[in-house]
Every structure is written in C-alpha cells, then in structure tokens.
C-alpha cells in the first residue's frame, strides 16, 4: 500500500487493474487442494501424451471461462473437477494467466502517455465539476425556497381539481342512481301501503329499466337480490289476503244469500202487483168464504186460519232504498288484486287452481245441512241463504274476472249442490209433520229457486222435487184433517141444529149450502135436519182445498194441473180420511140408533153438497168442469159408502136389540094350553120397534123400509130358530098355540105399517114361513101338505120338510112320554101311527130332494 501511494497515477491505475484481475481469479481457486493438483499435473501430462483430445477439451473450457460471466462459470469448473485431468488443466490455466499478464503489460506500455493525459484532464474536469455542483446546489436551494409557496398553491389547485372531478363524476353517477333509489323507495312505500299490484309494476320497471344502468354498484346487486324476495313476499301477503277473503265470504254467505233472496222476493212482489193491476176489473177472484168458528181444543184446525209465517221474516216495512248487492256486502278487491298479482308473476294457473279448490271445499261445507234443520224454518232458511250466498259470490266472480272461474266450473258446482241439496231436503222434509212448516218450506224453496234462476242457474229439478214434497204435504194435511174430523165427530151431539132467530139461521146457511123451502117457511125456533158436524166438515173440506191451493202457488203450474192436483187431494180426503173417520164413528160400540140415523141424514146432506164443492174448486182454479180430463170428486160415493155402513150398522143394532129381547123369552114348551095372549117379552119388543121406527121418519124412505123389513126378517128367523133349538126336546100343542099368539102379534105389527111406503102385505111376508108352519101343525093338514108339495101354488109352499120333520119329532116324543097308556086308546094309537106315517113321508121327501 505504501508503494502504491508513491507511484504516479497511471502506475497506480495499472497496478489496480492487475490486482483486480488476480482478485477475479484467485477467489475461484482459493478452495483448490494444490497438492492434489500437482499430482494430477503429472497424470495430466501422461494423459496429454496419450490422449490429445483432453487438451482440446481444456482449451475449450478455458475459452468458455474467458468468454463467460464469472457468476456463471461454476458449471464449467465443476466439469473440470469431475474429470481426472484437473492437474493438467491447472497447468493450462497458469499458462493462460501468464499470457494474459504479458498482454496487459504490453497494452499498458503502448497506451501509457495517452492514459496519463486523460487522467490529467479528468482531474481538471473534477474541479470544475465541483464548482458547477456547488452553483447548481445554490441555485436549486434558491429555486426551492422561491417555489415552495407555488408548490403549496399547486397542491391546493390539484386537490381542488381532483375534488371538482370527483364531484362531477358523483353528480353523473347520482343522476343515474337517484331514479333507481326513488323507484325503490316508491316500491317500499307501496309495499308498506299494501298496494301490491302497483308495487309489482314498479318492481318490473325497476328491474328491466333502471337497474341495468347501474348494475355495477353494490346496492344495485342488493336490490336485485331483494326483488325475488319482495315478489315472494307479495305472493304470500296477497295469498294471505285471499285466505282472509275466503274466510270472510264464508262467514258472510248467510247475509249475502239473505240479501239476494230479499231482492228476489221484492222483485216477485213487484211482478205480482203488476200482474194484478193488469187483471183488475176483468177477472174477479172469488172471495174466500168465512171459516167455521169451530170450538175445538186444538190450537187451530185450518192452515188458512193461521197467520202466514212469511218466507224470509224480513221487516214488515219495505225499504225504499235499493237493496245492496253482493259487491256492496263483501269487498272483492283482495281476490281481484291477488288475481292480478299472480297473473303478473306468471302464476295465474296456480292461483286459479287454489281458488277453485278452496271454494269446492267451502261448497261441501255449505251443502252439509245441520242435523236439526227440519225442526224449524230458520234452519232451512239459513241453509238456503248460505247456498245462495255461495253461488251469488261465484256468479259475481264469473262476471268480474276473466277466467278465474268459468261456466263449466260453475255448472259442475251447481250440479253437485243441486244433488246434495235435493237429497238433504228429501231427508229432512220427511221428518216434518207440521203442514204449516211444509208450506213455508215450499215457499222458501220456490224463493230459493227463483233467486238462483235469476242468476242463470237451472232449477227445474227443484220444482220437480216440490211436486214430490206436494205429495208429502198432502199426506200431512190428510193426517191433520183426520184429527180435525175425528174431533168434530167426537164432539158432535148428533142432534138437529136448533136456530132461535134469523141471525143464527143465516150463520148456519152461510156455513153450509142448504136449501129447503119448507124450512124457510117454518117459524122460529126451528131445526135444521142435520147436526153440527155437517157445516163444520163442509167448511173444513174447503179449508183443505185452500191449503192445497196455497201449496200450488208459484210452482209454475197451469190452471188445469192445479185443478187436477186439488181434485185428487180432495178425493183422497173424502175417500180415505173422512171415510175412515165416519166408518170409525159408525162402528163404535156405544153408538146408538139415534146417532146412526143422524149420521145417515148428515151424510145424505154432505153428499148433496158435493156439487157445491165442485163449483168451489172451479171458481178458485178458473178451470170449467167440462174441461177434458177433469177429475171428478168422489164425495158422492164416499158418503154413500158411509151411509150404507151406517145402514148396515142400524140393521145390525136392531138385530142385536131383537136378540136381547129374545133372550128374555121363557116359553113353557110342555104347556097343555096357551095363555090366551102374546108373551110379555114380545110385547115389549114390538113397542121398542114402534118407537124406533118413529125416529126413522127423517131417514130416506128406502132406508127405513129396509131397516123395518130387515128387523122383521131377523125376528122371524130368530123365532123359528128358537122353536127348533136343539135344547128344546119336546113341544106340546099348547106351546105351539102360545107361539102362534106371538106370531099373530108380530103380524099385527107388520100390518100396522110402522114405516110408510110398503105396498099391501109386503112386510107380513117376513113372517110367512112361521105362519105356514104353525098353520100346518095347528090345523094338522098334513094330507094337503104332502099332496101339494112341490106345486107352485101350494098352500104350505114356505114350509121346509126338514123343518116340519124336526118339529114333528119333538111333538112325537111328547105324545109318547105324556100318554103312558096311549097305546091302549084307539084314537091315540091312530094319531101316533099318523105321526109316524107323516114323519116317514117327510123323510122320503127329504131323501128324494137330496137325490
């Protein structure tokens, strides 16, 4: 280092270049083991001699070391150490270093003077550079001091420019974003106000128009993500509103139906009023005759006498205001809103299916009648109101929406409703036994049908079902009137109606159409021939006709059909109900002959009144009786049958009375002679018959004659049976004579004419059998009997040989037992022989007759 400081600059430069060359090479060789290198030099020399190829390789490596950057010669040196000629290589390397040193030294020597000049100039430049540097530094310092304020201002200006640019950019972006935010805010407000359909429209504009302009902002992405959620929220909320709506209309169906039926009732009243105005003056409806004031222990005997219960029990005063419709009672906006929302969302079909499914379920609930519906009219009314309310709502939906419900769907629901309603009505109406309730039910069904028909629903099946209920109503009426007739008949005194003055006479004449000029001429007090039950029964028949007519109203039937229905129902009343009641009264055990006679008189007058009933029906139905296929009333035959039964009962009662008297008969069959007068029992019997036939004066002539003839025949037959009774073993001629006196008393009664109208001795013929038989035995005219037997004009034509033989046998046994010594008397023996002979001949006649 000390030497280098004493050298000239160019010498120091040369020395430094040599050192740097060594410094470049020596570090690379510092880690080499030189002992092994020398050993290898010997081996390399030997190898070089043997193989020249290794020298060429070393030469290549050296060239590569010379031409390659020092940082990349590691692989080259590694190839030297990996080989076995590294000693030789080292020699080569040393030789190459020496060659380079010599070249450097030559070059330095050649350029030495120029180098020294360059160094001198460089040193001069160094000084000038130092001056220039100091000047530049001073100038820079001054410039910095002077420009510091400007830099500050420039920085402020730069910041202002930046802020201005940012503000302009922000304004531009906000201009794009504000409509989006405003629309979104509007959307939220609409959601909050539950204006879901406008919200969907806002959402559609937001999604398709505004958001695509600013879709790279994060808040826009949040909005995009929220829009499906909002749609779902709207769907859920609108569906919730729809469910509330469905629940609301289910609750309000009763009120809706009530209002609709009230409208239909109001319209029908207006139509009836208009039609009555058209008919006023031209056709006069006959006034209803006053009902008979029957004093019965029942609340009322006539449905017409009861106050009509009304169909809907609305307030009596008519509201002059227009009746509200379904849209006034129910807010339909939820279903419209939900329909629009689902249509916008593309889920209209889902909404339609859900709505129809829920309404079908509600329809099934509405059509399920309560178990106690048949007990009161309110049960039926509520049931009908709910059904009407349901279909009024569906009809409104049909006409105010497009496709939510269609006519096929409505028709399907109506068919289901119609079948279930008719089944329920058939079931529950069958439990009803009150005709007033059935009539009110009919009126309610008619109003129900008219209401739904006004909305376009077919209701012909309901009117067909009303015809079925009409038959049931007829049966209920028959049962009710059966009780009415029974009570009238039970409470009747079966005595002619007495009238003390003109007022009572007119009242009775107003109740029953009776005409008798003789009765009109008689002074008061006087009596009608019939008892109380005649006008009462007649009035009740008319009340029954009115009840049948009441049911036929508003059934859209022709006058002919109504007339036919009334006549058939009246025929059932007469031929079945009234007939059975009369038959039951006639056949009661405690009914006397007086009551039976009065029943015959009453039925005769009722039979005569049938033509007035025919006229009555003709007047209220406006169908002339000569119309083809007009049903005739069976009243005549009904009352005839009742009268015939009463007549038979009179005959039977008379016969029973006769039998009771005959049970008192106490003949002394072994008497030697008669008492000379008729038996006491027979005298009493004849007196009874005389008094009884006196009561028959009001009976038709044939009835009294038949009763009298029947009584005489029964008496004759019973007396003959008494004579021929098996318990009577013997009969004397004295007993026969006593019996003959009784028969004469009967014949005297027959000749006296207890009942007018018999011709000649017609009534005496009832005893002709007994008379001929007794004459035969008393006169003992057997020769005539036996000789003339079988001749048309025989004296004893009515005497049966069997009867004569039976009586003769009784006398023969008596003759034998009473005359022990008769066989010793010639006359007695002859008589006994004659009896035996006659008996033998009688047996011969009997045998020949049988053969």
Q: Would you mind describing this structure in some detail?
A:
- This protein has 851 residues and is mainly α.
- Among the domains are: 52-67 and 76-110, no CATH class; 220-272 and 326-455; 474-597 and 627-648, Exocyst complex subunit Sec15 C-terminal domain, N-terminal subdomain (Tetracycline Repressor, domain 2), CATH 1.10.357; 650-811, Up-down Bundle (Methane Monooxygenase Hydroxylase, Chain G, domain 1).
- The protein has 30 helices and two strands.
- The protein starts with a helix and ends with a helix.
- The relative contact order is 0.04.
- Keywords: Exocytosis, Transport.
- It comes from Latimeria chalumnae (Coelacanth).
- One of its GO terms (cellular component) is plasma membrane.
- InterPro entries: EXOC6/Sec15 (IPR007225), EXOC6/Sec15_C (IPR046361), EXOC6/Sec15_C_dom1 (IPR042045), EXOC6_Sec15_N (IPR048359), EXOC6PINT-1/Sec15/Tip20_C_dom2 (IPR042044).
- Pfam families: EXOC6_Sec15_N, Sec15_C.
